[in-house]
Amino acid sequence: MLGSLWSQVQQDPVGLPEFCSRVHTPVQAKDSDDDDDVTVTVDRDGFMDEFFEQVEEIRGFIDKISENVEEVKRKHSAILASPNPDEKTKEELEELMSDIKKTANKVRSKLKSIEQSIEQEEGLNRSSADLRIRKTQHSTLSRKFVEVMSEYNATQSDYRERCKGRIQRQLEITGRTTTSEELEDMLESGNPAIFASGIIMDSSISKQALSEIETRHSEIIKLENSIRELHDMFMDMAMLVESQVRASGPTQRTDSGPGPGRLTLPR
After folding, report:
1. Would you tell me which of 4, 95, 123, 178 could form a disulfide with 182, CB atoms 3.0–4.6 Å apart?
2. pLDDT by residue (tens digit) across 221-236?
């Protein structure tokens, strides 16, 4: 029976609570001086129950990040659709980005805690079904976390390119043509006034174009700050997942989903 259950676990490493509850059963011991049975319960159930509660909590956090990323995409589209987006929409976007950062830090901390407990047991040369289950769960959650954060990074990078494209078009409206490299240099300067250089402000069209340029530039600055804040955390988790992939061997590697370590940063 145990062999059959473990085969199910290997096929479906995420749904393990049932497996754990069926494997861990009370152990009955006989008292040599008494005819009465004495039940001795090995309290590994409680430990694994607590572990699975933690797993569910982490999975919930990751799902929350995924939902927020989809909402961020909608906010991006709404902001890009208007030359002068309303402040409420921009504030809501900032709140979403802040929430993603906070939740991601929680996930990272909890995954680190699990990783440390696994390393402690491995350091004592312990090997058990429980330990293998915990390692599988940790690996699964780590990959899921990196995938959702990769999607968030791709979303942010795409938004930056779209904002950059709008700036380039508005500069063309004012009669100023720039290459992609020149525009990058202007963005990196961090000086909004550089966009007004050489623009003759003698028409409402030029003024409107400059206003949108300033708006998009402000969005790009916020975006780059957000990407930088998450950079260290993302790279840390991506390297962990990459080491897990190498440890599991080439047959375990898959090409589905964003690859670990693919983080786009501003130049």
Report:
1. 178
2. 888 888 888 888 878 7
